[in-house]
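This week, study the protein below.
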Amino acid sequence: MTTLTASEARTNLYRLIDETAESHQPITISGKRNDAVLVSAEDWNAIQETQDLLAVLQADPFQNPPPFEKLVGDLPDPYSRRINIQHRLVYQVLIDENTVKVLPMWTHYE
């Protein structure tokens, strides 16, 4: 992740906004008192939706809505919920362990 000072970020703000929107890579901005992270609005919305879905899973992994679907394949009992048009949250419910396991995934759209 790129790190810039607040002065550098201020000088290049419009370019940095475009850069984060195109690359989907966050930029750390370090200040004298605090640090911040610049992310695109699209990525921020996906982060918020993911947090909302994780909160639903924590409360009840089978809660509907939001809708979920049981997937088929090699994994035992995988479920999926849509984050956005491109990304999904895939997980398993381990009932005996009282655990929801979020599975690492990657996109096939890129």
Notes: The mean pLDDT is 90. The chain has two domains: 2-39, 61-102. Residues 72 and 78 are 7 Å apart (CA to CA).
